[in-house]
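Entry for the shared binder. Reason: the reviewer on the internal report wants the predicted structure included alongside the sequence.
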Amino acid sequence: MAASFHTLLEIFLRTGLIYAAVMIGMRLSGKREIGQMTPLDLVLLLLIANAVQNAMTGPDTTLTGGLTAAATLFFINAMVALITRKSSKVRHFVEGSPTPLIHHGKILEGNLAREKLSKDELYEALREHGISEAGDVELAMLEIDGSISTLRKDEMPTIPRPHHRIRFLKRKS
């Protein structure tokens, strides 16, 4: 039995709402790379996928209903990607922004807490970069993809600063 236009439109709207809700939930849960996901994160993701499946298609379990939900997800994802490329405000909302974790050798505890990272996880990332102490780090950032990038103090270029500013004035002739 073929699904009616009304049923397909309902699936489209349900799927769109579920996409938005899951995207907001993922943004609120913090930044993590797929490789950094804990077993708890993976279980949550699998359970969410299973929980929202029926909410997207409702009672329609036809092939057409499933394909409509899948097509809707692809369409919405493509539109979100297009809009985030064109708008920095939307990109910031959808993707977030990098978060400093260490600045001038000092761990920024508030940022760690806000991003739901422990000091152990931070030190693990530092060791992956060959750094044993936070004091050796000029800057460590939690990037929007969940990775942690670091700049060692000894890697920072030294920029000579003049003792005074020289102003060049244009003379009137």
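Summary line for the report: The CA atoms of residues 14 and 55 lie 7 Å apart.
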